Amino acid sequence: KAGVTQTPRYLIKTRGQQVTLSCSPISGHRSVSWYQQTPGQGLQFLFEYFSETQRNKGNFPGRFSGRQFSNSRSEMNVSTLELGDSALYLCASSLVAVMNTEAFFGQGTRLTVV
Amino acid sequence: SQKIEQNSEALNIQEGKTATLTCNYTNYSPAYLQWYRQDPGRGPVFLLLIRENEKEKRKERLKVTFDTTLKQSLFHITASQPADSATYLCALASNNNDMRFGAGTRLTVKP
Description:
The complex is a heterodimer of chains A (about 110) and B (about 110).
Chain A: E1 5-7, E2 10-13, E3 19-24, E4 31-38, E5 42-50, E6 53-57, E7 64-68, E8 74-78, E9 87-94, E10 104-105, E11 109-113
Parallel strand pairs in A: 2-11
Antiparallel strand pairs in A: 1-3, 3-8, 4-5, 4-9, 5-6, 7-8, 9-10, 9-11
Chain B: E1 3-6, E2 10-14, E3 19-26, E4 30-38, E5 45-51, E6 56-59, E7 62-67, E8 72-77, E9 86-94, E10 99-101, E11 105-110
Parallel strand pairs in B: 2-11
Antiparallel strand pairs in B: 1-3, 3-8, 4-5, 4-9, 6-7, 7-8, 9-10, 9-11
């Protein structure tokens, strides 16, 4: 079966702009979660969506938001980009919940803010 | 404050030996603990999940233990191979739906 697909793979944005990243989960998976990975902070949980509703949220400012569509595809948006937002953004899909079931990660979107 | 520590940033072992990686936590009450493998430039790959009421889980050459008294999980790879070389991450999830990751241990298995 097809894996988790994230688009785009690479992105360069200017400080102050906003960006939208996309994640298509494995067919049949209803949970999509998002993460930020940086050399300094490691892998950090952003939020999880299930059946179009945000179920869990990590400790990130409101500039980071997301949504999930009826086909389980998800988007993540970051507004007013800062240099510190440069990171690898990963999404993962799970059948039901990322906390207590197997999660499948995509390859990530490498965001560079200049 | 809540802290998750993986024993060392890097671990080098000889092929055929058992690799043991440690994940310690403080000020946290995880209901679930997961281990992932991550190769450079790729997303993490799920390996094992263990619940707070489970002591041990095995999958092929992998074994995870979870000691909620010591606040520690041990991850073992037996009969290690060079292909096991990667960064291994532990992840803890609480019943408050909070999820946190350790910084990872970079394992190198030498032939």
